[in-house]
Amino acid sequence: MNTPVDPTTTDSWNRLNQLKDVVKPDLRAWFHSDRQRVEKLTYQAGDLLVDLSKNLINGDILRNLLELARVTNVEERRDQMFNGEHINNTENRAVLHTALRRPAKERLNVDGQDVVDDVHAVLHKVFAFADRVRDGEWKGVTGKAITHVVNIGIGGSDLGPVMVYEALEPYVKEGLECRFVSNIDPTDVAQKTAGLDPETTLFIVASKTFTTLETLTNARLARTWLLDSLRAAGALDNATEAEAVAAHFVAVSTALDKVKEFGINPANAFGFWDWVGGRYSVDSAIGTVLAIAIGPDNFRDFLDGFYKMDRHFAETEAEKNVPLLMGMLNIWYVNFCKSASHAVLPYAQQLHRFPAYLQQLTMESNGKSVRWDGAGVNYETGEVFWGEPGTNGQHAFYQLIHQGTQIVPADFIAFANPAYPLKDGKKDVHELFLSNFFAQTQALAFGKTEAEVRAEGTREEIVTARIFEGSRPSTSIMAPALTPSVLGQLIALYEHITFVQGAVWGVNSYDQWGVELGKKLALDIFPAVEGDEDALAAQDDSTRSLIRYYLSQRRH
Ligand SMILES: O=P(O)(O)OC[C@H]1O[C@](O)(CO)[C@@H](O)[C@@H]1O
């Protein structure tokens, strides 16, 4: 493992610091003085058109950002990742989500094993199972075909599947509905099982480790629900409980021994590997629910999309490499412009869970304050990712992005062709929708000057309130349509952007020790919440007082 370069010691970092002070961002002037700006700063990555021209960069800044990437060995680390070196050093693992989408004909030997072969063997099993469910060949315990699939998982075993299911809803097989249970709040299981017919419902327990408290608890609740409801319907008379569980539960995990302990037949379990991080796993067997929903052919297109972006990232020269450029732009905003957050604003209702998905991908990856050599960082890392689909966000939080005191870089995402082409009289509603997409990035970049506000005849006392200073940064990403392949490309784009930032910051983007303490404490605190006095006495004053309040109020 190479020692990470402290980026603040490099010439390019120092130069960028100076540029931050001397270059006053002025997108109006920059666009005016350079009619080639858009052409120079618009890129193609696979099917994605990416316009970076409305970012707060000039040629000098961009050059130094790319130089910073070079001297912090981003490309070298990228190659190490693609080749299966153990760059996740705190867990001593390779980081190989990119192997999940390699075509079958490729070979990649890692730790003495051809991982591409392994990947395709599992894909084959997942697809065969998906086809059986889709064709009605897989039967519930009473011989009926499956109409509802409930995926039980949390974090990476939930956010990816649910996001993709929503995004590719037009591709979902008619007559099939998938639901997603993640929260240990019992409301989640209660609501998601409501109205289901146990005879036609299949549960997928998705957990990389198969130890996650939420998922295993929810899986047990679901098993109880299944058996109780089958019994109540008289549907268990001719079958044992074990037969019912075998017909209605399958699992996805790297821990197949634990799957067996839970009572799920390992023959009905789909594996993956420790070199796939949870938040990078939607294209592994964790996507089994998706393979059922959209079918193996569409799932293959989804994987091809990832692969397209992987090739772009691995092979494109730095000056045209979109994940590299976007990752370095984020470095510019976080470390030099002091932006603490990053908005993701899809103009596609189907992508309404994309910002939530990116929150785990980016924040669990780069929310770190030690480098991979164990040294503390003395610069900012990570940013808060957030967002909502346009146009909803426009009527909620865009005010702050337009006129607030913080610089919030924003990624706008839109598609030329809608899933549902509807008309309002003669007006194409998608065109109205896209006009908002174009208008927002224009308003952010170019604002409205005092003179323009006055020219509108604005009352003098509200002129300043109506000025938009402009030069608010945005990136526009467009594609022909939200297909499985385009979605795969979009996800891989953000995976690689996250990689680039982590590499420059010298952090291990592939562990997540920061979530462990809370998990352990929840188990330690549980006896106190049940009312055990010794356990209560062991808590800090605030926690004890809160638990006592709970105990005084509980009615069950
Ligand atoms: O798939 P598992 O092992 O149940 O883990 C679920 C999630 O829990 C975490 O480990 C921590 O929240 C995530 O990284 C992971 O995606």
TrEMBL record:
InterPro entries linked: G6P_Isomerase, G6P_Isomerase_C, Phosphoglucose_isomerase_CS, SIS_dom_sf, SIS_PGI_1, SIS_PGI_2
One matching Pfam family: PGI
One BP annotation, GO: gluconeogenesis
Keyword Cytoplasm: yes
Keywords: Cytoplasm, Gluconeogenesis, Glycolysis, Isomerase
EC number assigned by the record: 5.3.1.9
Keyword Signal: no
UniProt cross-references to CDD domains, sorted A to Z: SIS_PGI_1, SIS_PGI_2
Biochemical pathway: Carbohydrate biosynthesis; gluconeogenesis; Carbohydrate degradation; glycolysis; D-glyceraldehyde 3-phosphate and glycerone phosphate from D-glucose: step 2/4
GO molecular function: carbohydrate derivative binding; glucose-6-phosphate isomerase activity; monosaccharide binding
GO CC annotation: cytosol
Record field: catalytic activity: alpha-D-glucose 6-phosphate = beta-D-fructose 6-phosphate
Subcellular location: Cytoplasm
Main location group: cytoplasm
Active site as annotated: 364, 395, 519
Family classification: Belongs to the GPI family.
Function of the protein: Catalyzes the reversible isomerization of glucose-6-phosphate to fructose-6-phosphate.
Name listed for the protein in its UniProt record: Glucose-6-phosphate isomerase
Organism encoding this protein: Boudabousia marimammalium
Gene symbol of the encoding locus: pgi
